[in-house]
Specification:
heterodimer, A: alpha/beta, D-Maltodextrin-Binding Protein, domain 2, 2 domains, 4-stranded mixed beta sheet, 16 helices, B: alpha/beta, Rossmann fold, Alpha-Beta Plaits, 14 strands
Chain lengths: 445, 309
């Protein structure tokens, strides 16, 4: 036991003292923020580009009803345009309508692909035009329709409040929950790769340096593997802890930059909420839009079940790490100097991790779909997928089952990997085949 | 008293009988040479003695008791042929770490490391990394880490490879020093001149089997061919006799092989009677190198893969 602690200490200290540890501790959160902002930036930017669409073959009422938004799609009724000269006339596309109003299949010719967003937008606007025409035929004036739409569109908003048995209320924000779950899932996905690969490289280093032979003449190979896994796991926990401190620190600092008058209004809203009133209902005029938005934002941040998220995150980080890192260690033990060998052997291990990520990202909005439920129970994917569900609440039995499976899973993988590792670490020359590794793992003694 | 006794050790791998029924004893305090061509099974044998491998069958007695890898490894220091050290780790820390893995306390480890570093003039290396060392320097470091915990049994696999004569002598002296203080040394190599110089007792293995076992002197005697070297001006007409066969003849030097039934005195008498002035007379024993080659030659140089029933 004492010897394992020596190994753990060495693995931990050499890595934490390394410059790359410090660098990655500060750079990864920044990279992640840049990544998130970058993708949203590009998504909005490409959506914002205005498309100029010429409309021809108007059955008569479209000029009146088909209205675009100058920021997205601009419709121009120009009878001189056809599908061979629209580019010269400066249009991005030409929409050909039907004289027959019963047929609602249309053709749009364009220079470049318009994209699903623009096509969907045009379809919506066409539907709206047909709807308005029907309403008008029933005797409703366009002016009335417009003013009604203006008053009602986007005017309602829903706040979802959870009540527990004691009547205590808590505000939830479904989209925020799924975003946080997604970020946690990505974080587990990334850390599993980073620290799994770190274990693998460490094992490879010991093997190619031939120090493994010196060390296993002092302690058992299994102890060496376990010490390495635990030591690197501790490095991972340290890094996560630093990230939590860093991010909450940034959040606290950001709060200082909010102007004082807005903070005051926020306090006021808070008091209203505490006294059981609907915040901002009575004194709408006194509270600025920014303040109420900020209030809502802060409230939903505070409403997130942080304790539950962080504690399950730590569990699934450790569980997933232990589950996979021993497999990575086994792979590291069977390959020689050539890192290319690692690629092909790693594939069966990285596949389920990537698969878990795919389940998570394609089912973000439906945390209770069968794929998510099963993915969050089966230990190969559960560390990633469960994080996507945890913020929204998971039935206890599912959580317990998933945790038990994960613990059982990592005990099994560690046991199996230990046997492969024991043989692999001292074998030089040819890399082991899957068949040989299978034999090592399941032979007796 | 034997520090180590091997009884009918066997270790078979998938395609090879690496060690096939080997038995021998090593006396406490001796310097023991384990010899054999490449792939003879030396490393496998050493790995079983260091507890890295378990034998398939057979028994190892360490200090008269059944070898228990978990506890007995503390009494063993093993320097494998392929040197292994953490390249990125500082040298002082590395020595401490390896010593502590062998069960030394922190203060003990520090004290002894410093002692050895002074002895080998390595003090200035303490904060350097292994990757900064030359091959010979890391060899010295490896030797230090092997003997730091004062093992009763030190196993050195090719300890002099890559060392210049000065450093090789330094290590050689330490080997003799350790031996004087009662440490048993197993020395595995295929450099026969070093074996002749250092070892008391040798075992030669080939193809997983022991083919020779004895003291250096005895082995040489067993393989002598009745060769004698005579320093004298000998004329060709003096050589016409059935008493010996001439192996080599130069102006003032003669190598002869005595015929059966002829004694050395008969030989000398023969030359004296011819009036030859003899300046020197010496029996020519075969070198271990010759014995080694004679025994191993003829068997296929590289081990063949065999199927294990």
């Amino acid at each position: 036991m004492n010897k394992i602690s020596l190994i753990i200490k060495r693995e931990y200290i050499t890595r934490v003292r390394n410059k790359t540890f410090l660098l990655s501790t500060f750079l990864l959160p920044i990279m992640m923020i840049l990544f998130i902002f970058g993708t949203t930036f590009f998504a909005t930017k490409s959506a914002q580009k205005q498309q100029r669409v010429a409309v021809v073959n108007d059955p008569g009422f479209m000029r009146e009803h088909l209205k675009g938004d100058s920021a997205k799609v601009l419709f121009t009724f120009d009878a001189t345009v056809n599908d061979s000269n629209f580019i010269d006339k400066g249009y991005d596309g030409v929409l050909v309508l039907n004289k027959d109003t019963g047929n609602k299949k249309f053709l749009i010719s364009s220079k470049k692909t318009l994209g699903t967003f623009a096509i969907g937008y045009i379809e919506d606007k066409l539907d709206k035009a047909f709807e308005n025409r029907q309403l008008q035929n029933k005797g409703i004036k366009i002016a009335d329709i417009d003013s009604i739409t203006k008053k009602t569109n986007g005017a309602s908003s829903i706040r979802n409040v959870l009540k527990d048995e004691n009547g205590k209320s808590k505000q939830v924000n479904a989209s925020l929950n799924s975003t946080i779950g997604f970020i946690c899932g990505i974080l587990i996905y990334i850390t599993m790769f980073i620290f799994g690969a770190m274990v693998m490289r460490g094992v490879m280093e010991e093997k190619t340096n031939r120090i493994a032979e010196v060390i296993v003449s002092s302690i058992k190979p299994f102890q060496l593997m376990l010490g390495k896994i635990i030591g690197i796991g501790a490095v991972g926990l340290t890094q996560l802890l630093l990230w939590v401190i860093l991010i909450s620190g940034l959040f606290a600092v950001a709060q200082l930059f909010v102007p004082a008058d807005i903070m005051q209004q926020v306090q006021q809203l808070q008091q209203q909420q505490n006294s059981g009133m609907i915040p901002g209902a009575g004194s709408a005029a006194a509270v600025s839009d920014t303040a109420s938005k900020f209030f809502e934002f802060r409230n939903s941040i505070l409403g997130i079940p942080w304790f539950r998220i962080i504690s399950t995150f730590i569990f699934y980080f450790l569980g997933g790490y232990l589950f996979y890192s021993s497999l990575f260690a086994a792979i590291g033990s069977v390959i020689n100097e050539d890192p290319q060998e690692a690629q092909s052997l790693m594939l069966p291990i990285t596949m389920p991790i990537i698969f878990g990520f795919i389940i998570l990202s394609s089912n973000m909005t439906t945390p209770d779909s069968p794929a998510m439920v099963w993915g969050s129970i089966i230990p190969f994917t559960s560390p990633i997928v469960m994080m996507g569900r945890i913020a929204g609440g998971v039935p206890w039995w599912q959580l317990c089952l998933s945790m038990l499976f994960l613990i059982g899973g990592f005990l099994f993988t560690t046991w199996m990997a230990g046997k492969i590792y024991r043989t692999g670490i001292l074998m030089y020359g040819k890399k082991a085949s899957w068949k040989e590794m299978w034999k090592w793992a399941f032979r007796k003694s | 008293m034997n520090i180590l006794e091997l009884h009918h050790l066997k270790k078979h791998f998938a395609t090879q009988k690496a060690v096939d029924d080997i038995s021998f004893n090593i006396a406490r305090g001796s310097i023991f040479g384990l010899l054999g061509p490449n792939g003879a099974g030396k490393t496998t044998l050493l790995r079983m003695i260091t507890g890295i491998f378990y034998p398939d069958s057979g028994e190892i007695l360490f200090n008269g008791k059944r070898f228990d890898a978990m506890n007995d490894v503390v009494g063993i220091g093993y320097m494998p042929e392929e040197r292994g050290l953490y390249k990125k780790m500082k040298i002082g820390e590395q020595a401490l770490y390896l010593a502590r893995l062998k069960g030394l306390s922190k203060s003990e480890a520090l004290e002894r490391t410093k002692e050895w570093f002074v002895k080998f003039e390595m003090q200035s290396w303490w904060n350097k990394k292994v990757e900064d060392l030359s091959k010979g320097m890391s060899q010295k470091l490896q030797f230090v880490t092997t003997v730091l915990h004062r093992p009763k049994l030190v196993i050195l696999d090719e300890p002099f490879s890559g060392l210049d004569p000065v450093n090789a002598n330094l290590i050689k002296d330490e080997i003799f020093n350790l031996s004087k203080t009662g440490t048993t040394i197993i020395f595995s190599t295929h450099r026969m001149e070093q074996v002749e110089e250092i070892c008391d007792h040798i075992v030669l293995v080939n193809k997983g089997q022991k083919i020779l076992d004895g003291s250096v002197k005895q082995v040489k005697n067993d393989f002598k061919e009745n060769l004698y070297r005579i320093g004298a001006h000998v004329l060709p007409e003096h050589l016409m006799t059935p008493a010996f066969e001439v192996k080599k003849h130069s102006e003032d030097n003669l190598l002869v092989k005595l015929a059966d039934g002829t004694s050395t005195n008969d030989l000398l008498r023969h030359f004296i009677s011819k009036g030859v002035a003899i300046q020197s007379f010496k029996e020519e024993l075969p070198s271990l190198n010759e014995i080694f080659i004679r025994l191993v030659e003829g068997t296929t140089a590289a081990r063949q893969f065999q199927s294990i029933a």
